[in-house]
Structures are given as C-alpha cells and as structure tokens.
Design brief:
- The complex is a heterodimer of chains A (about 650) and B (about 110).
- Chain A has helices spanning about 40-60, 60-80, 105-110, 160-175, 180-185, 190, 205-215, 230-245, 255-305, 310-335, 340-370, 380-390, 395-410, 415-430, 435-445, 450-475, 475-485, 490-530, 530-570, 585-595, 600-615, 645-659, and strands at about 5-10, 25-30, 30-40, 575-580, 620, 630, 640.
- Chain A is mainly α.
- In chain A, strands 1-2-3 form a three-stranded antiparallel sheet. Chain A has a two-stranded antiparallel sheet with strand order 4-7. A two-stranded parallel sheet of chain A has the order 5-6.
- In chain A, helix 20 (about 585-595) crosses helix 21.
- The longest helix of chain A has about 50 residues, at about 255-305.
- Chain A is elongated and about 130 Å long.
- The longest helix of chain B has about 70 residues, at about 40-110.
- Chain B is built from three helices and no strands.
- Chain B is rod-shaped.
- Classes of the chains: A mainly alpha (about 650), B mainly alpha (about 110).
- At the A-B interface, helix 9, helix 11, helix 12, helix 16 and helix 17 of A face helix 1, helix 2 and helix 3 of B.
C-alpha cells in the first residue's frame, strides 16, 4: 500500500481576516485520499500527543497511529465544540502573517513518535474502543464516538465514522441551521470515498435524515473554558525531546531554543503568580486588620466615654499596634505592587504597539465590519450591552412594533412574527426599534437582498417572454390563431396576472431566505458573543488588570492626584469642569459610568451628585445642599465642577475593591 | 533596570495583542499609559486576557466566514429556486390560457 504524506504550508496571506492555525494535511493512498485542514494549533497538539501515546502503548505502525490519533484528537476537539474542521480539500483556508511563528508541523506526530511522553495519560483507550460499536446517528456534546478497529480501512473513514464527524463538524458552527443531507455530503465528499473492500457500506439515508433533524432541534452547545496552559513538566519533556533528537526549527517551532524560551517565560509567570498570591493574602489580612481597628476604636471610645481608664488605655494601645501593623502591611503591599521595571515595560510595549497598530486594524476589520450594528465587541461595549439589556427589559411595545413590521413585510402570522421579533431583540441584547429593523436585516443579509431584487425583476421579464414563446409552441394555440386570423392570445391581462403572481411568489421565497439568514446570524451571535461567557473568561481577567491600572493605581493614586490632589494642591489652577447636558443626577451617573462603574446604584449616584452639587454651588434642598442656583432651574451649559466628584468616584471604587 | 530578553518578548507579545484587540481605544490608551504602574503579575494577567480575546475572536471570525459561505450558497440556491418557481408558474399560465382557448373553441362549436 503506497502512502504519501503531504504537508503543505498554508498561504502566507490572510483571506480577509480569517485567522487560525490552518494547515492542509493530505494523506494520499493508492486508492483513496483524505485531505483536511487542521484549523487549530491545539487540535494539532492533541493529535501529536495522542500519536505519541498510541505509539508507546500499541507499537502499531505509523499509518495506524496517525489515523487513530487523528480521530481521537479530532473527536476530542469536536466534543469540546471548539473548532470546525475543514474537511473539504477544496475549501480554502487561510492564515495571517505572523501565524507562521506558531505553526506546528503535523508530520511531527507521524515521523517522530519516539518523543518522551511528559505525563503518561491513558491512551484514549476509551475513545478508541476497539469493540465495534455502530454509530447511532445521534451523538451529543460530550459523548464519545467509538470506532471499531476493523472498520478502519484504507482512507480511514467508513460511512459511519464519516457521518459522525461530519455531523459534529457541522454542529460546531451552526446549531440551528438546517443543512440538507446533500449539502453535508457535498461539503464532505472526501469522506464518502469508501474503499471497495470496506466492511460497512451503509450510508444509511435514514440515519442521515435523523442527523439533520436532530441538529435542528438540538440546543446550542455549552461553551468550554479556555484550555489550561502547559505545565512545567510538559515543557521540560519538550526540552528533553528536543535535546535527545537534536531537533531544530524546520520541523516546526519546537526547536530547543523555542522550548527553553517557553520555560523561561513559564518561570517568569510563576514568580509573578507567587507575588499575586501574596498580594491577595496581604489584602485579606489588611481587611481583617481594618475591621479589628474599627472595633478597637469603637471600644476605646466607649471606654473613654464611660470613664474606664484602664480599658481606655488598653484600647488605645491596641489601636496603635493595629495602626502600625496596617502601616507595615501597606508598605509591603505597596512594594509588591510596584514594578521596578515598569517604565521599561511601558516603553517596550508602547514602541512595538505603535508599529503593530495598523496591522491590528486589518486583522479584525473584517469581523468588526460584519458584526457592526451589534456593538458587542470590546469590554465596555459588552458591559454596556448588558446594562442596556437590563435597562430595556420591558420592551414589549418595541417587540410588538417590530413584529407588526415583520408581519407586513414577510406575510407571517402574528405568532411567528412575534417570535422573530423577540429573537431579534435577544440577539441585539438591546433595544431594537421598528425603524432599525430594516437596517438590522440589511446588516445581516449584506447586499444580497438588493441583488436578489434585481434578479427577481429579470426573472419576471424573462417569464413574460417565455410565456409568449411557450404559447406559440402549443399546437392548440397555433391552430386557434390560424383560425382566428392571428389573434393575440397573450393579452395584457394575462401578462399582468403572471407578473403579479410571480412577483408575490419570488418575494415570498426571498423573505424566507432573509428570515433564515437572520435566524442563522442570531444563532451565530448568541453562540459566539454571549456577553456573560466573554466577561467570565475573557474580559473578567482583563478587568482585573484594568482594576489594577484604572482603579487601584490610576484612580486611587493618579485620579486622586488628578482630582482631589490637583484641586487642593493647585488651588483651582486646573479645575475639571463639564457643561450641564440634562441634570446633575444624569451627569453624576455619566461620570460614574465613564470611570468604570458601569451599573451604578442610586446611592452611588447620589453620593457623587451631592459632591458635584456642593462644589458647583447648586442648591438641592432634598439633600440639604445649599447653593446659588436651584437644581431644577439650571440652564443647559452650566459648568459643573468635577474634581470632588472624581475623587468621590475614586473612593467608591476603592470601597468596591475592598469588599 | 533593563528588561530581560524574556520580558522583552512578553512585552512585544502584549503590544501585538493590544494592537490587534478590538478593545476601545480609550481602554487601550489607559492600559498603555498605566503600564509603568502595573505590577508584573498583572502584566501577565493582561497578556492572558488578550490571548483569550484573540483566540475567541479567531473563533468568531471563522464562524462568520462560514456563515458567509453558507449564506452565499443559500442565496445562490434561492436564485435557482426562484427560477424553478417561475418556470412552474409560466407553465401554469400557459395551461390556463390554453384551457381558456379550449373552452372558447368549445363554445364556438356549440354556438355553430
């Protein structure tokens, strides 16, 4: 059996921003061929380690190892809902510049299986169950697919496993969309090439129908947590392997120098994490000490008020000790939170950032372009969307308005239109008005609807022409015309009737497609841009950083300097002001939001508004704030002073941090 | 103190990730301006968050691309469906006209 493993480099240029570790792996045999794209480094890595484990365990030949490793890795990957595998050799895949550095060679898994296994894991025995277990046709997320060894033939994919893989691959990117059996098979025809001698030749149309139906009703998958990073042991094993095999870059980035660098980075991170743990520990102790101090002060005051001299002295001593302890702890904390190389970090990052900025824009331009109008990218936008979602819970009226618009435009019944309107609201995560409905549809369908409108006109004109031609070709009509001196049988009335019926039917079809697009897009957005998921796993950690910069440092220190200190120190030299737009309350809320408290409570708003009013000489009788101008009589443009308000916001944040 | 090679490498990675990130420019500026005040453990945290964002956006980009590919196919299929529908409607109208003529001829015969 001849086999050839081709390892093609991906194209260097990106295809409008689609990114990923894309690599064509083509296995060619005497009578078959499998070509697939390895779309992600992790799949690739998984496959490599599976290959090694299998090699160690089973000592099978390379071909078998490769096939089994690929299936196991692929299945595991698919179970994690993490990737769509491009299985069509014709499917274009792309990568971006700069991806090469992370490019791993699949051939590594095949050619050099002697690499030591860092942490011997069970060799996916469960997944590679050797007992043939027919594919049931309804794999759920998290379930394992069992492959019978004897079913593994030349090109690796008998109909059953092919079905399973196709199904899961399709699930990975579109849960609701009903892809026809034909489409699925057309997209994956490589897998359908069965060897003549394959034991199982059932393509089971019935089970395939089930697949499609099953997918239509399946719930969207749960998202998985990002994969943990490599352990030190794993890195060490890589280093050992690179040393043992004299590995050099060329097989991939896994040369000795690469892994040694990874180790250094790992150690650096470990050190940083250790500091982080200590910081948290100190913060907890400090919190406890603050509480003890408050208690001691309270008790001391009580003892003093009740003239208990001994107790007073004891509490005073206690307070002093606690104050000293707190001071020491704060010093230590301050030291840990100081980065001696901070300036160098800043300089280096800024320098490279400026150069990389333009490139960055290009990379995500495509995504942002397609997702525009949904405004879900970026931390603040996501959080804003959440705020808006909460703020627009009662949008029944809007939903009704949109639903009426849908009913009119698409000829749906009330119930269907209402459901669709609710879907749109849900996807947007914010208020969609009836006016913006058309705009939203356009964003989703691109210019396709417009193009189709033109096509429709052509089809109608063509139909009128065809009507005449077909009538002429009918013997009965030809006979009639000859008898009646060439009388026209195609009247204007006939033409109008044809046009009217045709236009209505074509429009109905188009509206169906628009609706399908919208639902598919809704599903896509819901799956990919779930704000809660993003916040929890992506922006949650980012916000900790921003808290570090924006709250702990910039605000409690810098902003305090800017606001409070600037006001005091400079004696009004540089006073922050803002022109009144609506109300002091509104401005206080805006300032809170602008400074990172995205969902301020009424108490927080009042706290800031009170300070702002006092500082700006605005009289607010309900809050007992005296001033020159009554808050209800203020003119737009009145200059509100912000220094005190900003300092107040900094305090609120500091309190939030401490709780 | 100058950065080590490893630190430099991490700094460069953060710079690239930040430049690519679709985060609001104001936030990026805040991060860049505040980097010198950021303890090292939070620098790593930042890198982790940005890596996560990038990976997720890759997934979104891929899904969007697939959506667009499917959409393209759907609209092409729609066009074909519309043509097929038109064909059926034309035939229906031809038949109707033919039926009318038949009827008319029948009436003419009766009248004769």
């Amino acid at each position: 059996m001849e086999k050839e493993i081709k390892d093609k480099k991906p194209p260097a240029k990106t295809k409008e921003g689609i990114e990923g570790y894309s690599k064509k792996l083509s296995l060619e045999y005497a009578d078959g061929k499998i070509t697939f794209d390895v779309l992600h480094q992790r799949l690739h890595r998984k496959m490599t380690s599976m290959g090694r484990a299998l090699r160690a365990e089973k000592g099978t030949d390379q071909e078998e190892v490769l096939k089994q490793a690929y299936v196991a890795a692929r299945q595991e990957w698919l179970n994690a809902n993490d990737v769509l595998l491009g299985v069509d050799s014709e499917t274009e895949s792309a990568t971006t510049e700069g991806q090469d550095e992370q490019y791993e060679s699949t051939s590594a898994a095949i050619e050099v299986p002697e690499e030591p296994i860092a942490e011997p894991k069970p060799p996916a025995q469960e997944m590679l169950n050797l007992n043939p277990a027919p594919y049931s046709g309804s794999i759920r997320t998290g379930e394992k697919v069992k492959f019978g060894e004897h079913e593994w033939r030349l090109n690796g994919y008998d109909s059953k496993t092919g079905d399973a893989i196709i199904q899961r691959a399709a699930e990975g990117y579109s849960e609701v969309q009903a892809i026809s059996q034909e489409q699925l098979y057309a997209q994956n025809q490589d897998y359908q090439q069965e060897p003549a001698n394959a034991g199982n030749t059932e393509t089971s149309p019935a089970s395939n129908t089930n697949l499609v139906l099953d997918r239509q009703v399946r719930k969207e998958p749960e998202r998985n947590m990002p994969e943990p990073e490599m352990t030190l042991d794993e890195i060490e094993a890589k280093i050992k392997f690179a040393k043992d095999t004299g590995r050099v870059p060329g097989i991939g980035p896994e040369g000795l120098s690469y892994w040694e660098e990874q180790k250094r980075i790992y150690i650096e991170k470990q050190k940083a994490e250790e500091i982080e743990r200590r910081v948290k520990e100190l913060e907890n102790i400090l919190r406890q000490k603050y509480s003890e101090l408050a208690e001691a002060v309270k008790n001391g005051k009580f003892a003093k008020d009740t003239a208990r001299l001994m107790e007073t002295a004891m509490w005073e001593k206690n307070v002093k000790e606690l104050e000293k302890e707190i001071k020491d702890l704060e010093k230590e904390l301050e030291k840990l939170n100081t980065n001696p190389e901070g300036k160098e970090w800043k300089k280096e990052v800024k320098n490279v950032y400026d150069k990389a900025k333009e490139k960055g824009k290009k990379v995500w331009g495509f995504v942002k372009e397609r997702a525009k109008g949904f405004g879900t990218f970026g931390l603040w936008e996501i959080k804003e969307a959440e705020v808006m979602r909460r703020g627009t819970k009662n949008t029944d009226e809007e939903i009704k308005a949109i639903s009426q618009s849908i009913q009119q435009e698409e000829g749906l019944n009330e119930e269907e239109a209402l459901k669709e309107a609710t879907d749109i609201q849900e996807v947007l995560g914010r208020s969609a008005t009836a006016e913006s409905y058309e705009q939203i549809s356009n964003i989703i369908t691109g210019n396709k609807s417009e193009q189709n409108n033109k096509i429709e006109k052509d089809i109608v004109d063509y139909a009128v022409e065809q009507l005449g031609k077909r009538l002429e070709s009918r013997p009965i009509i030809a006979n009639y015309r000859s008898v009646h001196g060439g009388e026209k049988v195609m009247t204007q009335e006939n033409i109008d009737a044809l046009r009217a019926e045709l236009s209505a039917e074509l429009k109905k079809l188009r509206n169906g497609q628009i609706r399908k697009d919208r639902l598919n897009y809704a599903s896509l957005m819901r799956k990919n841009l779930d704000p809660k998921w993003w916040y929890r796993y992506i922006y949650g950690p980012a916000e900790v950083v921003l808290l570090g910069i924006g709250f702990k440092f910039l605000l409690t220190k810098l902003a305090a300097e800017k606001a409070g200190v600037v006001a005091g120190k400079t004696g009004g030299e540089k006073v922050a002001e803002v022109a009144l737009k609506d109300t002091v309350w509104g401005e206080a809320k805006r300032q809170l939001v602008h400074n990172g408290i995205l969902n301020p409570t009424n108490t927080q708003i009042q706290q800031v508004a009170t300070v702002m009013s006092k500082e700006s000489f605005v009289s607010v009788p309900p809050w007992e704030v005296a001033g020159n101008v009554l808050h209800t009589k203020m003119q737009a443009g009145y200059l509100l002073k912000l220094n005190g308000a900003l300092a107040e916001i900094a305090k609120i944040k500091a309190t939030m941090l401490a709780t | 103190m100058a950065l080590t090679e490893t630190q430099k490498q991490i700094a460069d990675r953060i710079a690239h990730l930040l430049a690519e990130s679709p985060l609001d420019e104001e936030i990026k500026k805040t991060i860049l301006d505040g980097l010198d005040k950021l303890p090292e453990h939070l620098i790593f945290q930042l890198q982790k968050a940005l890596e996560g964002e990038r990976e997720e956006l890759q997934r979104v980009a891929l899904d969007l691309e697939l959506f667009l590919q499917d959409q393209q196919k759907d609209w092409q299929k729609l066009e074909q469906d519309q043509k097929d529908t038109a064909d059926k409607i034309i035939n229906k109208h031809v038949q109707k006209i033919e039926d009318d003529i038949n009827l008319r001829q029948l009436q003419e015969k009766i009248n004769q």
